Amino acid sequence: MKRQQYLLPIVIFISALSLFAVSCKKSGSGGGSTDKQLSDSDSLKYLMYRTMQKSYVDGGRDKNYDLPSYFWYKQVPETDPLNKTFSDAPALLNYMKGFPKDGQGRQIDTYSFLDDGTTDEQIQGGVAGDKGLEVTFAYDNNSNIILVVLYADKNSPAGLAGVRRGWVISKINGTDVVYDGPNGTNYNRTVNALFYDASASFTFKKPDGSTTTTTLASANYQINPVLFDTVYDIGTRKVGYFVFYTFSNVTSGGSPTLTKTELDRVFNKFSNNFVTDVIVDLRYNHGGSTNTAEYLTTQLAPSSVAGKEMYHFEFNDKLTAHKTEIGLPDIVNFQTGGTLSQLQNIFFIVNSQSASASELVINNLKPYTNVQMVGDTTRGKPAGFFTFTLSIYKNGIETFLADLYAINFVTKNSANQGDYYRGMIPDKLAADYVGYDWGEEGDDNLDKIFNYIATGSYGRTIPLSDKLKQDPSVKIPAPIKVPRLRFEGMVSERVSNVMQKETKGRIRPR
C-alpha cells in the first residue's frame, strides 16, 4: 500500500485536502483481511464510515487512532459498512444520519452529504458551470401554479441574456410548463432543462405582459454573489440595501476574488453615503464560505469589536480532547471592526432558504449591535463540516471517489448562543412576493422595514389585501421543491497554511 499523509481541514471544510489510500487487500465485513479487491462503491462506503466513526487518520485504517470526525458519532450504532443492505455510500450515509436526534426525538442531521467536487469549485474557486438561474413554483393571483425566476447571476448565461427576477417561464423547448407532481413527466422535463441538460430554449413572460424566447446553454463563469445594491432616502436617513445570494470565498489561491471586490464596492458606496441603516437580503442564500461570513460580519460590526470573540466551535469529545495537537481552532476573534461609523440598525431579510453562513453572520452580530430579522423562519443550520476527499489508488494512479461533508462541529456566538436547528425566528413576518424585482416598490419585506425606519414600528403603507387587488402579477411561492442552484453549508480555507499535518507519533489518543 502506498503510504498517504492525511490532511486535516481545521475550519468548516477544505476540499481536496484529505487523501486516503485503500490497498488491494482490505478488511472485510468480518474485520479480517481478504484477497478480494473492493469495488469503488464498497471502498467509498468503507472510507466514509471509518472517517466518520473511527478516525479521520488514513481513512480510519490505522487502529492506533481513535479520532472520529462525525459530531454525533456516539449516536450511530456499530455498523458494517460493507453490508449489502446498503446499496451504495449515499444509502449508508442516509442510514447513519437518521440516528442523531434532538430532545423531541426529531432527526438533527439533514445536512451531511457526498459530493462530486462541484461544491469546491463553486465555493472555493467561485466558478460555476450552469445556466445561472434559480426558480420556484409559485401561485399567481388566480391560484394557478406557475414557474418564476427567483434570481439570475449577473455573469451567468441567464444573467447575460437579461433574465430578471419575477419573470415567468411559460415554455421550455416549445412545450408549456405544467406542474404535474414531483415525479411527473413535465416536472422532470423542466428540472432537467434547467439544471442538467446542456442547453434548452426558454420562453419568458415579463411583468409587462410581453414575452421573449432565448436559448440558454450551461457555461463556466465567475460567480457574482451581489444581485442588487442601492441606497435609499427614508426621511432624513440613508439606508443601504444589497442582495447577497451565496458566500463564495473572498480569496482564492491567496488572491482576492470577485466576491471580495463586490463586497468592498458595496460597503464603499454605503460609507460614502454615510448610511445609518443597512438591509442585507439573504432570502435565497444557502451559505458557503465562513471566510466570507467572517468578512461580512466584520463589515457590519461596530469598530469597538476589534479583538473580541466573533464565534467559537464545539466538536465531538474526542476531537475536543486533542484539539491543540490537531490544530483545531477554539475561537474566531474580530481582527478589526467595521467602518460604517453612523450605522444604527442592521436588517436581515430571510426565509426558509437562508441557511448556514447566512445564519452565522446574524448570530455573530447579535451580541454587539441592533439586529432585526424580517421575513420568515430560517433553515436552521448551526453546524458545519470538514471536507475529506476520499480516493483510492489503482496501479499507482489516484482515483477520486467523492468529497465527504459530514457534520463535524457546531458554532456559537460570543454570548454562547446557537443550537437554532429549527431555524431563527424573524422579528417581523413578511411575505415573499416573487413577482417583484429586487428593490421594487411594494416588496413586503422592504415596505415593512422602511416603515420601521420611519416610524419605529413595522407595518405597511398599503394594506396587503389592497396591494393584491392592485397588482395581479404578485406571485407567492408554492410549497413545491425544485433543485437549488447553490450548495447549502459552510466552507472555509481561513487557516489553510496549517491544514497539512502528520499526526503519527505526535498524537496518542486516549
What do these coordinates show?
The chain is of the alpha+beta class. Among the domains are: 127-220, Pdz3 Domain; 224-382 and 414-462, Alpha-Beta Complex (2-enoyl-CoA Hydratase, Chain A, domain 1), CATH 3.90.226.10. The chain has twelve helices and 28 strands. A six-stranded mixed β-sheet has the order 12-13-16-20-21-26, with helices on both faces. It has a four-stranded antiparallel β-sheet with strand order 8-7-9-10. A four-stranded antiparallel β-sheet has the order 19-18-25-22. A hairpin with a 2-residue loop joins strand 12 (226-234) and strand 13 (237-244). Helix 7 packs parallel to helix 10. The protein is globular and about 65 Å long. The two termini are 27 Å apart.
Mean pLDDT: 86
Named at the architecture level, the CATH assignment of one domain is Alpha-Beta Complex
> Strand pairing plus helix content: what structural class?
alpha+beta
Q: How many separate helices?
A: 12
Principal-axis shape: globular
Approximately how much helix is present in the residues? 10-25%
Q: Order of strands across the widest beta sheet? A: 12-13-16-20-21-26
Total beta strand runs: 28
CATH hierarchy class name of one domain: Alpha Beta
What fraction of residues sit in β-strands? 25-35%
Distance between the termini: 27 Å
Rg over CA atoms: 24 Å
Q: Profile the largest sheet.
A: 6 strands, mixed
Name the CATH homologous superfamily of one domain: 2-enoyl-CoA Hydratase, Chain A, domain 1
CATH topology of one domain: 2-enoyl-CoA Hydratase, Chain A, domain 1
Question: Which stretches are poorly predicted, pLDDT < 50 over at least 5 residues?
Answer: 1-35, 494-510
